[in-house]
Amino acid sequence: MIDIRQLRNDPQGLRELMARRNKPELLSELDEALRLDIRLRDITADRDGIRAKVNDLSKNVGALRKSGDSTAAERLMAESRGLGEKEIQLAGEFEEVSAALRDVLLRLPNVPHPDVVEGRNDTDNPVIKGPVNLPASFPDYRRVAHWDTATGLGILDNERAVKISGAMFTMQRGAGATLARALCQYALDMNADAFEEIRPPSLVTTATLTATGQLPKFADDAYSIERDDLWCIPTAESSLTSIHAGEVLPEESLPVRYMAHTSCYRREAGSAGRDTRGMLRAHEFDKVEILSVATPEQAPMMLDELLARVERAIAGLELPYRIIEICTGDMGQSHHRSFDVEVYAPGCDSWLEVSSVSWFSDYQARRADIRFKRVGQKGTEIAHTLNASALAVPRVWAAIMENFREADGSVVIPEVLRPYMRGLDRIVPRG
């Protein structure tokens, strides 16, 4: 959530920052927030004025009664009661305007970092590194879609997954299931040197999803359990961020570093039939998330570290990859600055996003009320949050199927994953 003080003190500056997102409707919402905030302050001033006048009237009533002028005292009491009714009306309006202002503020996105590249949409995202490990050409046997390869090997059974759960659910079998688990364990082990492993709940409250910005804007893309006011997490980021919701952390404990392997659930409401075959887009998938809570000064270095860790994991798999920076017009709701790591899938002939590495500044922490206290200083400050997909299984799994396919239809296991594969170095058709 944006800082209301920035809205009050520098509305034009905030408009200029928000205008960089290239969504004119945001400026209208910003104007509405400013209007509502001004009205709140006017109501507060009116209520304070009424209370001061009521206090004066009470004193005068007492004095008049002492002097025996009951008629004048009753007149002032009647005036006081009228002011009290007006205060009650203002109190009701205050609650309504406060709720409306909070609703607008929750919908407004974060402002881009000054260094974020200007752009209108994803076509303007610049490649800042790569392609790396991309061969000059691929043999025809690697130009086979992963769903054909995996189905032929008997390790992907989406037909039965659909029978069990419906469209856009996947099921890996045998070595395919082992490979999915191996990818997660590999990502956890790659980050265990600095990140505490957490096994968080997969069902969270409305407040938890609101804290990270999924609600209210992306409610249609989330799975809800209305009876219990619970939501299925779209990413472990949601659970991990709220570990410290409502807390004040000592400066010396920062940066906090967490990692988690969870299932993730997304309706993919906007997919409209895109990428529904194979493993590219699914309602349920596994992912390893790494997250940090930091001071504003630590955040830029932590962003670099998260990106480096993701790149190291993908490079270790020997997949062709590149890194792009997300431009102002393509940034997510909560993002202050963001980078994507993409791998190339020769069978699909496309670059697949496998990780988003993001700095949220104080946007999420303000919603979650995560603060820190500097050593030797009074008061507290809003912390900064950052996160990255250390490894998302479906697309990396798919890329392995396509990049490591052999002419006989088998798939070679990347060397770094073999310790997790129960001795397998190659997936061959099941006999």
Helices and strands, with pairings:
Layout: H1 4-9, H2 11-19, H3 24-67, H4 70-107, E1 127-132, H5 146-153, H6 158-165, H7 175-191, E2 196-198, E3 203-205, H8 206-212, E4 224-225, E5 230-232, H9 236-241, E6 248-250, E7 256-265, E8 284-294, H10 299-316, E9 321-325, E10 337-345, E11 350-359, H11 363-368, E12 371-373, E13 381-382, E14 384-392, H12 393-403, E15 411-412, E16 426-427
Helix pairs in contact: 2-3, 3-4, 5-12, 7-12
Please provide a written account of the structure.
- This protein is an alpha+beta fold.
- It is 41% helix and 19% strand.
- The chain has two domains: 4-107, Serine-tRNA synthetase, tRNA binding domain (Helix Hairpins), CATH 1.10.287.40; 122-427, BirA Bifunctional Protein, domain 2 (2-Layer Sandwich).
- It has helices spanning 4-9, 11-19, 24-67, 70-107, 146-153, 158-165, 175-191, 206-212, 236-241, 299-316, 363-368, 393-403; strands at residues 127-132, 196-198, 203-205, 224-225, 230-232, 248-250, 256-265, 284-294, 321-325, 337-345, 350-359, 371-373, 381-382, 384-392, 411-412, 426-427.
- The strands form four sheets. Strands 1-9-10-11-14-8-7-2 form an eight-stranded mixed β-sheet. The chain has a three-stranded antiparallel β-sheet with strand order 3-5-4.
- Helix 2 runs antiparallel to helix 3 (24-67), helix 5 packs across helix 12 (393-403) and helix 7 (175-191) packs across helix 12.
- The model has no long low-confidence stretch (mean pLDDT 94).
